[in-house]
Design goal:
Blueprint lengths: L2 H62 L4 H14 L3 E8 L2 E4 L21 E3 L7 E6 L2 E6 L15 E5 L6 E5 L10 E8 L8 E8 L6 H45 L3 E5 L5 E4 L1 H7 L9 H4 L1 E4 L8 H6 L4 E2 L4 E5 L2 E13 L5 E10 L2 H35 L1 H27 L5 H29 L7 E4 H11 L1 H6 L3 E6 L4 E4 L1 H18 L7 E9 L2 E8 L6 H5 L16 H11 L3 E6 L4 E8 L11 E5 L2
Parallel strand pairs: 18-20
Antiparallel strand pairs: 1-2, 1-5, 3-4, 4-5, 6-7, 6-9, 8-9, 10-11, 10-16, 12-14, 13-15, 14-15, 15-16, 17-19, 18-24, 20-21, 21-23, 22-23
The chain binds adenosine-5'-diphosphate.
Amino acid sequence: MTASVSAALFWLLLAGAGVTALFASASERLSEAFSTDARILHRVLSQRMEQQEAVLNAAHALASQGVDEATLRTALTTLRRQYPQVVAAQRCASGRCRTLGPADVPLPRLPLSAVTESRAAVRWPAGGGPLYALTRGSVRVWVDARRLTDRLVEGSAPLAFTVTRPGSGAVLVSRAAPAGPGAALRTFRVQKVLGTDLQPFTLEVTRAAPWRAWPWLGAAVWTALTGGLTALITGLLRSRRAAQRALLDERALAAGVVQAATEAIVAVDDQHRVTLANPAARAALAHPLTPGTDLRTVTTFRATLSPAPFDAASFWSSREPTPLPDGLTLVQGTQAMPVEGSLAPLRGARGEARGRVLILREVGALHRRMLAQLETGERRAREHQDTLAHVSRLSTLSEMGAGLAHELNQPLTAIVSYSQAAARLLDEPEPDLGRVRHAVNAAVHQAGRAAQIITRLREWVRRAPGQARATDLVQAAQNVLTLCHADLRRLDIRVVTHVPPGAPVQADPVHLEQIILNLLRNAIDALERTPHAQITLVVEPEGSEWTLTVRDNGPGVTPDVLRRLFTPFTTSKDGGLGLGLSLSQTLAQGMGGNLRGANTATGAAFQLRLPQAGPPPASAGAAHQGGRP
Ligand code: ADP
């Protein structure tokens, strides 16, 4: 069945039901009105019958009392004036009937009954007709049935009626309804017996409901309305179906594009559970990616170009479109595939968050070669940087040679002294072994100190690629202070430290000490001619980082140098290379941190920040330590 046929059937049903209901309601209304009018007519006719009988009974009562004829005539004439259907009154005696007063119509002949009845009765003239008489005793009252409905107030739709005599069924009076235009749709009919004992005539009332009494306009309006409504609904349904088809087409198209794409496409919900994945994604991730799989658990990225590891947590939690960093590889077991792509939020029609979509592309052969070369370049740069750092360390050590020699000389001299003292004590006739043991222990302690310095120096001169690991920033600062001990003492520089018991940072220990040494040596150089020279070292937590601030009360950085502080070959020193700060900043950034410098009200301050390793920095009270070295 086509849609148009269904719509037409629907319309026919709806219109038919409405029209039927309208006509049924009109029919009920007309039937009720007819019943009411017929009831009124029946009551009026019944009353009029009773009126006639009342006139008869009154005349009989007067006649029985023996009033003279003139009085009787006057009384009856007065009574008749109120009841127009009573057209004449007669008094019968001795076989003759005399009409009392004028008769309204010619009276037919009515044979006299042999016995004068004392009870009221109805008498019919021979030949029928609308006239009949009510008799009682000597009195006769003539009734013209045609006048029964005189002065009857009727509505706009008069009734047709017939009054018939009981028994014979002869029509006493009949009135047809005035002919209206057109045929009647329905004729209402009712039959009742008039409510008097004497005249129980049969009253049949009919009324033809004319065509204009029916709700043609309402039916036409309803039919038109339902037609319009059906057309509207059909149109709406048709356009909805068309829109649905278009939507399905588009969806199929989009799904086709996603499935055919060579890029890996995976849509996830807010909890990173897979909702859609194309074949390229299943192949790239080597996983079936069934809906509900947590994408984070099956996708591992590794950074190649950047020294810092790929921050997966912040990547997956990003609410903005986030491109994957350059040089990222997707790890599949032992294989690593260089990829590029992005993670973008998905929004619904009203802009509400509907999850995210991850798009991955394996970088092309050319791109891959470029990345490989870039990586090689980066590796070389890192090697150069390591070499430079190494050379810089060697150069620093050679500059610190005198101080370091002095630093080593001290424990060696002490070892010699303690050993000589021990030998002397042993040469005594009764050597005091306790003192000998003390001298030997002191020599061992000094030898350990010297060994520590040498170990540090060996590590410094060792050439190894930088490798970040959990390192204590406070310990590193203390190691550097030990190396600079001789210079600090020579220049009488007071060192004040505000440091916690430990500050674990993610850093290469040698590079970290190299940075601190650069900062400390610059401060020492700046303080060479400063009276009451002081260096303050502060280690404190800041967010997810630890900071080390090296502050001095020297003359501060000259404005010229300050502008290019971290640019290589910026120096104000005779024989200075101007590489210390730029190298230190590069090393700090390579470890995920940074180095900044500025002048303060009383000198210069340099701040090194490094990411904390392990648990977040505790707000442990900082130890305070100060004094001349
Ligand atoms: P170099 O020490 O070889 O000059 P650096 O890069 O370590 O190279 O320092 C660059 C310059 O920054 C120094 O020459 C000096 O002018 C300035 N500088 C660094 N630290 C300080 C400081 N604490 N006080 C004053 N000037 C400083």
